[in-house]
Protein 1
Amino acid sequence: MPLPPGSAVDALLARRVLVVTGKGGVGKTSVSLALGVLAARRGMRTLVCETSGADNVCGRFGLTSGGYAVTQLAPDLYSMSIRPEAAIEEYLLRMLRFRKLYEMVFRNRVMAPFIDAVPGLHDLVQLGKVFDLERERPAGLVGRRRAWDLLVIDAPATGHGISMLTAPRGMMRLTRAGPFHDNARDVAALIEDPARTAIVLVSLPEELPVSETTELYGRLGNFQAQVACVVLNAVEAGRLPPTYPSLRPALAAGANPAGMDALALADALLRRVNAQDHARASLARLGPPVLDLPDVDAPVLGPTQLDRLADALGGEAEATR
Amino acid sequence: MTPVYICCGAGGVGKTTSSAGLALAQARAGARVVVLTIDPARRLADALGVRVGNEPSPVLLPPELEAKGSLHALMLDPKETFDRVVSRFAPTPEARDRIYKNHIYQHASANLAGSQEYMAMERLYELAREDHWDCVVLDTPPTHHALDFLAAPDRMANLMDEGVMRWIVLPASRGGWRMLERGSEVLASVLERMVGNSTIADIAEFFTAFQALWDGFRERSIEVRTLLSAPSTKFLLVTTPAPAARAEARLFVEQLRTHRQPLAGFLVNRCLVAPPNPGAPSFGPDPGLAGWAESVAELTALPERQRARVEVQEANIAELVRGTTAPVWRIPDLGSAVHDLGGIIRISGYVGAVVPEWGTGLGGTS
């Protein structure tokens, strides 16, 4: 049986930064948003950050994306897209202080491809933005110490996700000294602090995603200790009664052709539910708690569906219905 | 030029298994196929019998498959490929070792932005030039912009551009940052302030060491581009019927059109199949057993629910392929059985031969 989700989620929301990663296509963005919805419901001023360069979040709320600018999605829920180019520009501009100088030094035929190719620079500067947001002071918000209570990072998939987490260390090795090195060290201190930063792994209840999640967990190295939970997304409810398997022969005996089709579909459904239990069990062996999220039969998850996912995460599924 | 099939698609659509299935389908039809896969899950590598390594190893196919051709597979090792490229283009062993020992190279060769894509293209080119293959299938790394990797050789060439070389390398080799262009002294001081002296020295050393290889790189990037734009190189889009995947897939189709690259077909994974028998399900009279009524109620709803999903799926596929004549291969949702050789064999049965005349000696000449 899945763990009661409440306590694991409470511990999760006590952090400052949540890094959500997992294999491509497992629903990282939906899980990031569901966590954001839940935190916002509890009165936390929450910012969900996309890192892929895409702006997928605002559209789900029927809003036009503000891109690199913060957009409000709902009360206490905000989003932005930390586009690497914009983050690099902001970072270098702050270092150089003058746009003219920045353009002369970096936006020319020679330096632009060079900046593009510096290993890990995109990842580092995106995390650098997270670092800034974590420290941001509230402007015009009375009685608040910080602008954001929680930052949810919709991080890149598997391999790239790991590159992002290790980018600060990589830059420290690459540069050895200097302000760049020092900035990387500050960012590493935030990302590697288990009290402030937690990692959420997202998986699907199928064999390959589960084995990739297991592999990913193994490759996380020192970051393993920061994995606060594994979210098992798109779990099929399985509405057939527990006695169904014993009834199946009798049902098949009296079934018409359409009835046989229905039984075949039910068999496939049961196989999926069994595979889910298997998937959950093998993910549970990793150590961190496994949280189930229901399969929501909708093409794109908007506010209604995200509310349902947030219910499930918060363990409020029955309480609010 | 050996025909090349490049499988593109977003992450999580089953690209690696589909590429393997497509390759196997060609092998069954008589072609000597090699599939180059990039960072697959280890289980799949196990299923194919591929070790983590840069050399093609034969996939042992069950005899009952009666495959007329053969299948080899390899897994890209970007670091090893990069090392080999360096070794090939370096004029002397000393030049090669100088790069191998460079601080930046050691930390960057595997993660230099775009280097994985570049190395995939490089390895693909090597395979396409070997004459013991009838076709090469490439499983591309997932990218946000599906055709990004096509630009990888150009990006690498830009990075190694002579202008950059002169700008970064020459001043350092003169022991200072006196440069020809205006503003360069500002740049030098800015960079030094940001990353420190030792890093600047490392970077300069990296580019200086690479200078000797530059001609080789430039020539190779032209050859790779020629291979990619050859009519014998075709693209396949791997996708799922989910509406969320559609926008990205459509963008890919448009990109191909803009680049005048031929689209060889669509592989649509995880397709649902409508139940074959019409009418309402019935299960005979209720024998009064516990759970019978609930079971019947749920069972009765299942075919209709499935049909509704299939309808949405077909509308999505129709929208996806709009305006193209490329074939669509629907691969049914095979559940979790898909990640071993048996699953790949099943996929290959749905794909079929992309060139009917494999094995007649015509395949390689098209």
Protein 2
Amino acid sequence: MAHTQDEILAGLAELVAEETGIPAGDVQLEKSFTDDLDIDSLSMMTIVVNAQDKFDVEIPDEAVGGLKTVKDAVDYISNAESAKA
Amino acid sequence: MTGSVDRQIAVTGMGATTPLGGDVKTTWEAALAGSSGARALEAAWLERYPTLPVEFACRLAQPVTEKLTLQEIKRLDPSGQYALISAREAWADAGAPEVEPERLAVCMASGIGGLYTTLQAYDTLNEKGARRVLPLTVPMLMPNGPAAAIGLELGARAGVHTPVSACASGAEAIAQGADLIRRGLADVVVAGGTEGCIHPVTIAAFGAMQALSKRNDDITRASRPYDVDRNGFVMGEGSGTVVLESMAHAKARGATIHGILAGVGVTSDGYHISAPEPEGKGAARAIRAALADGDLAPSDVQHLNAHATSTPVGDVAEAKAIRLALGDATDGVAISATKSMTGHLLGAAGALEAIFTLLAVRDGIAPPTTNLDNQDPNITLDVVTREPRKLPSGDRVAVNNAFGFGGHNVALAFRSAS
């Protein structure tokens, strides 16, 4: 079943917090993964792998570069879920 | 016993997490009390693998969750987690020395490396496919991962090294650290060993070699070096770290010196992939080399922490090696086999036992060898049994032995700080 945007944000924030220690509350839609949250590429890839598992979607390597902000990732996961449904 | 000052290395910090305790103090107190770190394996493992020959091991006394953050745990293999815990304690114990990054090195050994990470990644690959394998898998499984984690934390830039010589690894790292200082390549070296590989795979594999004790009905008495009824070693896990420092650097900053690493000896048997050379010739050469390196004579030695894993063959070969190296002076040496309490920490064993050896010369007391009810008549050593034994006062010298599959022999000679 597809998740709401809020559920995806909360799930993503949890993954970011687990990986980096950044409080989940700081993971907000407009935040940039690199500039605001200071997440390096290795951590970003870890979050992507874990997000694929958590939401049961595929995020191809080519798509990861386009995920600049948290909103980009939430939208990508949401669209991927919709495409599957 | 003169010892040229410029070749002597000060040991200014110690850290450990072991089956006996979460730090050096609790580990040492438990060792002097003759405690055992043996614990049952996870019930889920025993249920899933009912044919496992061994149902216990010496597990860490303090969970890593009490020392590390969730992020640190997720980003490090257990071997890296244990190393970071022991290195942090050692660094703090040394007073977090101010040292130029280009003069600070790390030598952190592991005998096995990131086994858990490797196996978990393989399970993930099988169950979920390649795109679920985590990107940190390689940095976590590589044997130098623990050394690199410490090097990163301390900003060490004089080199980060990981000697790998099976169960001699931890001692070899300390020997390598001494070399770096003596060659003028570093002033301070964080050195030790780590191992975190207790798993059904290793239990099955060591079991297949007939290397493990199968005393499942009396697990705290399974590790019994030198006893006639010994039947193999008990797997252990953990890490030990020391901070080595050039004597000049340590004295200049007024550091507390726990003891002196006077000499190191490293040899190889060239004999067999896993069995020790039965007369102990290679091990004896390592002991003699360590003493010669420290300008010490056999008669200077009051205590020896033996490798003594509790295997039928290994314990006898080492006993012969000790007598071959020390000759008549052997009879005056108080021998301790602390694996009777800690189990065998494999790549961390040499580092933890170096710490025990150092504490013995510092505090003037040799820890007991537990479970020694009937000493093997082929082992003619003066073994410290049941109770700790006081060592003579004055300048004390002790040797630590560590040997590994592949025919690796390392001996470290420590003396008390004057």
Protein 3
Amino acid sequence: MIPFKILKALAAPINQDNIDTDQILPARFLMMPRDQRYGTYLFRDLRQDNNGLKIPDFFLNQKKFAEAQIIVAGRNFGCGSSREGAVFTLVDSGFRSVIAPSFGDIFYNNSFNNGLLPVVLPETLVKKLQQFLINEATPEITIDLETQQVFCEATSLAKFDIDPHRRERLLKGLDMIDYTQQFREAINRYENDYLADKKWL
Amino acid sequence: MTKPKTLLDKIWERHEITINPAGQSLLFIDRHFCHELSFHAFNMLEKRKIRVRHPSRTIAVADHYTPTTGEKASDFKSSDRFELYNTLKKNALNHDLDFLGLGDQRRGIIHVIGPEQGFSLPGTIIVCGDSHTATHGALGALAFGIGASDVSHVLATQTLWQPKPKKMRVILKGSRPPYVSAKDIILSIICHIGAAGGTGHVIEYAGPIISSLSIEERLTVCNMSIEAGARAGMIAPDETTYNWIQGRPHAPKNDTWREALIAWTQLGTDEGAVFDKEHEIDGQLITPMVTWGTSPEDALPITGHVPDPLKETNIDKRANLERKLDYMGLKPGTSLEDITVDNVFIGSCTNSRIEDLREAAAVAKGRAACVRAIVVPGSGLIKKQAENEGLDRIFIEAGFDWRPAAGCSMCVGVNGDLVSPRQRCVSTSNRNFRGRQGPDARTHLTGPAMAAAAAVTGKLTDVRSLRRN
């Protein structure tokens, strides 16, 4: 996994709440093996109509946002299904971070397993940021995970909270199975005790 | 005196192997379910040459891509779906996992068969690569959905790192009005707290109405916790729970049953335990519900009207509302009961259990469906039970399409059971997201009786008007 430290990149606004994982990656694409390009199907049904024609209003279809690596979205981004494909498709499309007032819990969790940084900011700041991106000719922002700050131009817009363990994982690009194997003895001890106590399990 | 604890605290603490310096808990996972889309996780193990740590703690069940028209290979709607099924089977055999495949009566939707087989038990932690894993919390377990990487972590280590979630309690006071189903209860709760209201929380449902629910009904309520943003929902186990579990294939027996019972009776939330958030809902006010939009929080009593964007003063909210109505093909102010439908789907991990089928059949009996209506039982055993009770005959005589094989079917449509573009479907499933039942499909969520009512009238219908006649 690629570590995440600091990212200066173009950002795109999605001014909608409850963008669920069915919007991010429709269920009909879920059977693809991981080595196929998931990015092709990102927001498939929001980006294209039934005849495969581009919907011009959608942010990714606008030239200014075509190279964006950050999404600034509404409340409850990534709600719904647990499909990690929703994160695969964002990462394969070049996205490294999503900023929103809140996230679907499972999507949030899945992001850290793929080097995608979800940033929670208050709704008022998210709205301000979205407006900034719409107004700017080059809508660029900076996210610094080490100092936990989002910068707009040179000014710090906000500090964000993140669980220290998850922050560490992204900063180091930590592999979770390797990490857990270090606790092997504790797991063995626990299992012996627990299963002696709960014989029906 | 020890500090009063909640049901969640007790399960969490008993499963905590260690806490790392950053404050995350390493939790032991008692039970895990795989399905066809678990192939990502098996591939991750394969790459690292890791074996499944505890094969007896995982069951592999084919439910998402399986056909509902029959149990044969030729019933699959495409060869790639059959291939996905075979990959699950191969991975299960390779790792010595119990596999429930075609032709096995125990096979069905994971969140139906886990409880049905007694594999899901009180006091346990249960995970699956599916967001509706919250369902199993109805038995007094902590059950939640995870992504593919976490599935591989569970297969490899039988553990997961988690920060402790916040605790929310939703108390339903009073008694349940007639014709109000478990689905109406959970839709009302989601409407009340919002689709992101439970984010970061585990919800415990409590109060006299919850205690009076059957296990089937509790499973329906906990199933849609994720639609309120909560990763898990749970209900303290009680006599209803124990009676329901006793005698099931994986349930403890004899002496261990008695031991388990002693442990389970200690699980309930202690008097005086503190929650981060509490909601009280007057159960008396709950009525039959239906969704009109593209989020489960877009629910209203069936007697309501399609909301009007012009009455929304916030510009963003107005634009969102207009988008929803445009997608759903609805005019502001329309009476919900005037909305005509094209399809009805009775099934899914929310509403495909025997009580759901009985409820729907009671409405269908002696009437005739005037739109396409499919009924998909939640498991092979439920199908058998329904046929023993003659429910299949009632559905067939009323012109419903009784499907002989269990599965997720039209809830997510990946097996090929789809709603056509711009067609309207009344569905007993859990999500009315855009495109959920097929590109441009329009979904209205209801309980099983309301779905059957829509099938026989061709419109969204207040089931109370049919049942009273």
